[in-house]
TrEMBL record:
InterPro entries: Cyt_P450, Cyt_P450_B, Cyt_P450_CS, Cyt_P450_sf. Pfam families: p450. Residues 231-248 have a biased composition (Acidic residues). This is Cytochrome P450. PANTHER family: CYTOCHROME P450 YJIB-RELATED, P450, PUTATIVE (EUROFUNG)-RELATED. Residues 219-250 are annotated as: Disordered. It comes from Streptomyces flavofungini. PROSITE patterns: CYTOCHROME_P450. Keywords: Heme, Iron, Metal-binding, Monooxygenase, Oxidoreductase. It comes from the Bacteria. Belongs to the cytochrome P450 family. Gene3D superfamilies: Cytochrome P450 (1.10.630.10).
Amino acid sequence: MDQQQHARLDELMRDPYPLYARARRAEGLTFVPELQAWLVARDADVREVLRRPDVFSSANAVRGDIVPAPAALAVLAQGDGARRRVVINADGPAHQRMRAPIARGLSPARVAAVLPYVTERATALVDALAEAGPGGRGGPHVDVMAAYALRLPGQVVGRILGFDPADVPVVVRGGHSTERLLFRPLPEDQQVTAAQDMVALRRLLDDYVQDRHAAPRDDLCSEMVTSLAPDDGDPDPDPADPDPDGADPELTLGQRAELVAHLENFLLAGHLTTTALIGTTLLHLLRHPAQWKLVCEEPERVPAAIEEAARYDTALQGFRRVTTRAVTLAGTELPAGAEVLVGFGAAGRDEGRYERPDVFDITRTPVARHVAFGLGAHGCPGAQLAREQLRVTLALFTRRFPGLRLAADGPPVRMRPTLIHRAPEALYVQW
């Protein structure tokens, strides 16, 4: 992809909603050259795709836009650079097997158990924000993305996995570097740095895999390791029999690489998406001061505000699917192997499902159920955890900063050019 093509793709991803509107009005599906996929933009069509995983496979759910430079590829080769099958790009029984330990680890009881920690860490971050904010050491305004949204979700996911808090910065940096390397056109030196972050993350995860295999604990990392290893589909099977005394055999390199891939995928989904949701929720509430005032005065509206923000401008704008056979969708005939982009963000603005869909309104009733967190077999297992982090965030921010507003003298809000973790690049606020 050349620079001109990247420029068009950036423009599209920073504001995809005009494209979505055209696609919903068009007959059938719309092919988008910049995405090399058919866009599924109407709510009913999105739901149909998500309910038919046998026809619309997740094998290509996320595909990078960039082929890294040779120097970056050489760094990645120091770790395991192979594309592995993980829960997000698996189908059928394999997907069910990979999803099961994640669903258990993010059960309502597990989420409830971690909520005191969420509140503790969120409160500490808000305290620091208040100290550094307007008039403090941070100057006249503060970037709430850097000071809060980029921090809380990583700490929470690290806690659930059972990671040492000291390792969380490596986890967060590695996640963001992964996205930058695979989806952004970077100078070669920045690509190399991003690749080094990815390798550091994978080595850290490999250490955890080996540790939890040897001595499982009561955490999600142990749950995933013990449930997913050994994998019948391991590309590097261990020919040796278990030890005569019944002890578990050592993990092979292939098994370790598979488990690292599972953990890496979970981390990317678990903290990047929630970071983005925090950013977009605050952005749209602050762009509508009357609604921010309303949620401050009536805290019981926080859940509705979260759902409206997810509907109006979800972090996960869409996932790819590939057809397993010829099929007709919305009157468009698709051959086997056709790529479609399932537009969760487009479905949230569908005029056929919502009144005034392009209006952000936390008071809308009744609220039709949205697909911002997916649907069916691949529905987000971490949706409740994400909602709870948003709930705690809004409860704290509305109580501590009722006068919160977008910084009058800050730079204009610029959205990140991505469809998988849509959020402000920075969000400068004052109070």
